[in-house]
Amino acid sequence: MSAEHTSERPVVHARDITMAYGDIDVLHGVDLDIHRGEVFALLGPNGAGKTTTVEILEGFRRRSAGEVSVLGTDPERGDDAWRARIGLVLQSWRDHGRWRVGELLRHFATYYPDPRDPAELLALVGLTDQADRQVARLSGGQRRRLDVALGIVGRPELLFLDEPTTGFDPEARYEFHALVERLARDEGVTILLTTHDLVEAERLADRIAMLVGGRIRACGTPAELARRAAARAEVRWTSDDGTARRERTADPSQLVWDLHRHAPGPIADLEVRRPTLEDTYLHMVNLAADGTDMGPEPDEDEDEDEDGETRAA
Ligand SMILES: Nc1ncnc2c1ncn2[C@@H]1O[C@H](COP(=O)(O)OP(=O)(O)OP(=O)(O)O)[C@@H](O)[C@H]1O
């Protein structure tokens, strides 16, 4: 990566993005800062505004208002040189069915000043054996691997991954996760991932933002988010009379200690279940569905504005 790209300025910087389709408001003031080499996941239920947000950052959609800088440029004014620094793995399959896999990759490589070697890239995504196969004859998971290869052939500084592992078998998913980690860790690629797979987000993301109803409700590391949402640990055990018991508590150590003190012997089936990212996610979504406008929850990594809004900084 050249020195001009290594400044501390966030790769993605957005303030107060709003978006309306006709008279329907979809985004209500989204703030984002994503730093170089960070894997950032955007989570949220169907219709939350994830694709809209990402398309605005990619320069495919004009925002209604707000300030956006991606790799130092307003995406609405991004030129070809700017676009060449960005990789896209989109949900929709592009129509290249009659091309052969290797041929298509070699063709795409010609668009970039310093592309990856197509043969190495095929090996990287596990498609070497399919190099001479027509794209239309690939399985769903193999097409998705090709999408990933096309997204990174130009050595992007910023990679957008829109539900990248849909249709992957577990092994392909595992290999893909390792690839994403390598891109971010070894090559300093910044990655914005949208996914409905909370396990994937937890595994890959340095930070996660939860977008619900067009607002960022929470942002932080997976561990920070798991601790939120008033999510308390659950302690499970089987009491002396054989009854299955469960209790939620903010202090599971104390509860386990108390159980031991009062039990005549070992406690059967004792289990402590820590709050998970899923607990927080469901909590956020349910609050929004109830119409409880609790606003975003600030944490130690976030700037709080005068009005109490949280920035994903
Ligand atoms: N071109 C459009 N015209 C009008 N409304 C749109 C358009 N695109 C999206 N919407 C609406 O904007 C809202 C947000 O859509 P968006 O696709 O950004 O959500 P999402 O979070 O990506 O959802 P999903 O998880 O289902 O992909 C939805 O209510 C959707 O119906």
Automatic annotation (TrEMBL):
Entry keywords, A to Z: Antibiotic resistance, ATP-binding, Nucleotide-binding, Transport
InterPro entries the UniProt entry points to: AAA+_ATPase, ABC_transporter-like_ATP-bd, ABC_transporter-like_CS, ABC_transporter_ATP-binding, P-loop_NTPase
Similarity field: Belongs to the ABC transporter superfamily.
PROSITE patterns, per the entry: ABC_TRANSPORTER_1 (PS00211), ABC_TRANSPORTER_2 (PS50893)
Gene3D superfamilies, per the entry: P-loop containing nucleotide triphosphate hydrolases
Pfam families documented for this protein: ABC_tran
Residues in ABC transporter domain copies: 12-238
Amino acid composition bias (Acidic residues), ranges on this chain: 296-313
Region (Disordered): 289-313
Protein name: ABC transporter ATP-binding protein
Signal peptide bounds: none
